């Protein structure tokens, strides 16, 4: 038989194919043991052997290291190469005498011009010997028969067969039925059992197998002796002499004499200890996250279903906590991915310390984790668990000298109250999580029935807002700012308006936070700036325009450039533009923002502090900031002129502002009495329905003359 006849034509790969691709091939094709690596001319340059490759991938970081790297790093670069026309027996004899070890890894078959023609394994040579391409078991049976016939066969064939048996990596032994003692063992058998053949020959089954295993094997032998045939055992524990217990795959074949009686039992075995370990490793890879060593999403889902079934049987509760890390992305982006990985491992460790022995913590992916809490009899247990996690994660982390502060937001779903199935429960926990995140993060919340509807409404609003921005449905309206001493309108505040198809006008108080969350505030804010400057530049009177700036906008790089561009495009003088910021911008104490504010002021743009009195800023705090104007929130105006504390507060703010060289605007002025009181307190400007509501085209409404004498105030 020629090598050509026993080679298998397995499709090849090229050297640049990734480890992952080869992994998938092996996974999809369990019968493929060897894959040849060829160059552009189909000439073999390497060989990948299944077991060696999988072992390598299963090693710590093996997958991570080789998944995306070329297979050329993992292949045997000097494989045995044989021409297809060589006689199988010649090749075997030749290799046995020169490089017997090499044969274990298989060989590549080429045709006359050295192009790839297939691959072959030792087993194929063995098959060649038995001249049959049937299953391994019957191969061995045939082989046993040919052993008997070997005496009469040509010398060359005998040497060949013996060489094959001697060199196959599979253990082969023969037992004499008459006395139950072994009569032969090959070299692989010596290594597997850890015994020399001299010591082995003459011993019995009980010398290598213990207790129940030995009993099973003896019973099998009795059956083989009576009825013949084949027996097979997977994962037999056996004692390797002088070492630990190992696992064996063993197949036994009855060999009959000319009368039909079983004379010998042929044993064919393999030590599968390592293979089982590899399989267990691969199994683990499929169910555990390698970075944190926590169960992954797949295992989590399976466990969740089980937890729910169990809770149903025992009439208990089960809780699912979905955990999302706050600001993780920031750490990852600023300190790098290695620090991000380090952080994830440390967070996992801390969270592991928070859960009980019956709970399961899993990593669902990215910076998302989840806990299944079982045996819940009182929701206080779940509340306590969530609180422990929130506080454990809130403590600072040391990442190689850098201190990182993150947080955990947790949404909780409870079986059976919130859902009947695992998937549903997870959805409910997600909804609660979404709510926590929209409320400021770093906290936990249980799912509540009305969250569903609110989330739905919010999603619709989000979609509509994107659409509105895309279609240019948003509009700028302008509300007059009235100078109290001069008794005339000196400017306008630009307020964003959204005419919604079904809901009518949606308040900016509702949609601005949504735009901030969706990352739409930058384009929306930029549009508003441009639109306001463009409109103001058309006004005949040199009235100023005040534009509201979201804190999120202020944090974005390029904000000063956006303002500069809006002024340049419209031709509006910088001193006619006011920017209204809120206290929350300043609370961060971000030096970049202070720098931006100074830069804008240096250009001539004025800065107003909006809604003063509603936040945390103290009066003393104002001294440090580059402000031109303070806008007193309408809650204080509303108390004028009768409530003494409102009068006192407005008076104090006006005095302080004057001392610091700033002006003041009272918001929400609705009555003449309020305006009188403001005049007496020395407030600079008034804004409110008394003077005028926001309007799309204020110059047209008030008329060019109207700009200096508003109708309402004239009475
Ligand atoms: P704000 O900057 O304090 O704007 C004043 C709000 O008070 C406006 O509400 C205005 O219509 C309302 N208002 C004015 N006079 C009176 C009055 O006499 N009585 C009462 N009860 N209310 C009065 P609006 O337009 O709903 O805006 C709400 C908030 O949305 C604004 O508060 C501002 O913070 C924000 N906003 C509006 N437009 C924009 C924008 O273009 N960008 C950003 N980032 N925020 C905006
Ligand atoms: Mg404002
Ligand atoms: Mg305001």
The top-level CATH class of the largest domain is Alpha Beta
What is CATH's topology name of the largest domain? Answer: Alpha-Beta Plaits
Envelope shape: elongated
Bound molecules: ligand C2E, magnesium ion
Write down the domain tally.
5
**Oligomeric state, counting identical vs distinct chains:** single chain
- Mean pLDDT across residues: 86
Low-confidence stretches: 703-715
Structure annotation, total helices:
29
Annotation, overall tally of beta strands:
27
Percent of residues in helices comes to 40-55%
CATH superfamily of the largest domain: Reverse transcriptase/Diguanylate cyclase domain
Query: For the largest beta sheet, what order do the strands appear in spatially?
Result: 19-20-22-23-24-25-26-27
Overall structural class, as computed from helix and strand content, comes to: alpha/beta
Largest sheet: 8 strands, mixed, barrel
Distance between the termini: 116 Å
- Strand content range: 15-25%
| Radius of gyration computed on alpha carbons | 41 Å
């Amino acid at each position: 038989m020629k090598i050509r006849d026993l080679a298998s034509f397995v499709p090849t790969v090229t050297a640049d194919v990734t480890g992952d691709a080869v992994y998938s091939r092996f996974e999809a094709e369990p019968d493929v043991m060897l894959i040849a690596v060829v160059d552009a001319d189909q000439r073999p340059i390497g060989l990948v052997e299944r077991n060696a490759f999988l072992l390598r991938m299963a090693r710590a970081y093996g997958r991570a290291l080789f998944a995306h790297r070329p297979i050329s790093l993992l292949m045997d670069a000097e494989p045995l190469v044989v021409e297809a026309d060589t006689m199988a027996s010649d090749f075997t004899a030749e290799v046995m005498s020169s490089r017997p070890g090499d044969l274990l890894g298989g060989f590549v078959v080429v045709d006359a011009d050295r192009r790839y023609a297939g691959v072959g394994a030792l087993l194929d040579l063995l098959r060649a010997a038995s001249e049959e391409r049937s299953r391994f078991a019957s191969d061995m049976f045939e082989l046993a028969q040919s052993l008997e016939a070997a005496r009469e066969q040509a010398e060359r064939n005998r040497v060949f067969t013996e060489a094959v048996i001697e060199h196959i990596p599979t253990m082969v032994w023969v037992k004499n039925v008459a006395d139950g003692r072994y009569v032969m063992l090959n070299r692989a058998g010596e290594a597997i059992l850890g015994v020399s053949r001299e010591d082995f020959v003459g011993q019995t089954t009980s010398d290598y197998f213990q207790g129940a295993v030995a009993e099973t094997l003896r019973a099998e032998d009795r059956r083989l002796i009576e009825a013949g045939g084949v027996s097979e055992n997977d994962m037999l524990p056996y004692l390797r002499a002088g070492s630990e217990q190992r696992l064996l795959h063993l197949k036994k074949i009855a060999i009959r004499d000319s009368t039909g009686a079983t004379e010998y039992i042929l044993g064919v075995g393999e030590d599968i200890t390592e293979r089982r370990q590899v399989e267990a490793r691969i199994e683990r890879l499929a169910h555990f996250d390698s970075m944190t060593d926590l169960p992954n999403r797949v295992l989590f889902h399976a466990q969740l279903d089980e937890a729910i079934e169990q809770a149903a049987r025992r009439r208990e509760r089960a809780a699912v906590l979905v955990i999302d890390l706050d600001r993780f992305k920031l750490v990852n982006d600023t300190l790098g991915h290695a620090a991000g990985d380090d952080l994830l491992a440390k967070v996992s460790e801390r969270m592991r310390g928070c859960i009980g022995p019956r709970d399961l913590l899993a990593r669902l992916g990215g910076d998302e984790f989840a806990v299944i809490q079982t045996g819940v009899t009182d929701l206080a247990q779940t509340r306590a668990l969530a609180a422990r996690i929130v506080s454990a994660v809130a403590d600072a982390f040391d990442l190689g000298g850098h201190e990182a502060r993150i947080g955990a937001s947790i949404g909780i779903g409870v079986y059976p109250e919130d859902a009947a199935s695992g998937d549903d429960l997870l959805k409910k926990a997600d909804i609660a999580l979404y709510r926590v995140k929209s409320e400021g993060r770093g906290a936990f919340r249980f799912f509540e029935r009305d969250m569903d509807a609110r989330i739905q409404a919010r999603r619709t609003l989000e979609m509509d807002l994107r659409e509105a921005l895309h279609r240019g449905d948003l509009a700028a309206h302008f509300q007059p700012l009235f100078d109290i001493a001069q008794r005339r309108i000196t400017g306008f505040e630009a307020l964003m308006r959204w005419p919604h198809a079904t809901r009518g006008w949606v308040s900016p108080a509702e949609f601005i936070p949504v735009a901030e969350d969706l990352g739409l505030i930058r384009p929306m804010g930029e549009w508003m700036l441009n639109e306001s400057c463009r409109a103001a530049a058309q006004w005949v009177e040199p009235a100023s325009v005040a534009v509201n700036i979201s804190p999120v906008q202020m944090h974005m790089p390029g904000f000063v450039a956006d303002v500069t561009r809006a002024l340049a495009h419209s031709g509006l003088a910088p001193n006619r533009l006011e920017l209204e910021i809120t206290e929350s911008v300043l609370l961060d104490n971000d030096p970049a923002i202070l720098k931006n504010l100074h830069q804008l002021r240096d250009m001539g743009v004025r800065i107003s502090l909006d809604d003063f009195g509603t936040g945390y800023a103290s009066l003393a705090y104002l001294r440090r900031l580059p402000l031109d104007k303070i806008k007193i929130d309408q809650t204080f105006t509303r108390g004028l002129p009768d409530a003494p504390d409102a009068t006192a507060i407005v008076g104090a703010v006006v005095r302080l502002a004057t001392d610091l060289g700033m002006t003041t605007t009272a918001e929400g002025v609705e009555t003449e009495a309020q305006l009188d009181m403001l005049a007496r307190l020395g407030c600079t400007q008034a804004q409110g329905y008394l003077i005028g509501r926001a309007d799309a085209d204020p110059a047209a409404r008030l008329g060019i003359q109207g700009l200096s004498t508003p109708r309402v105030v004239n009475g």
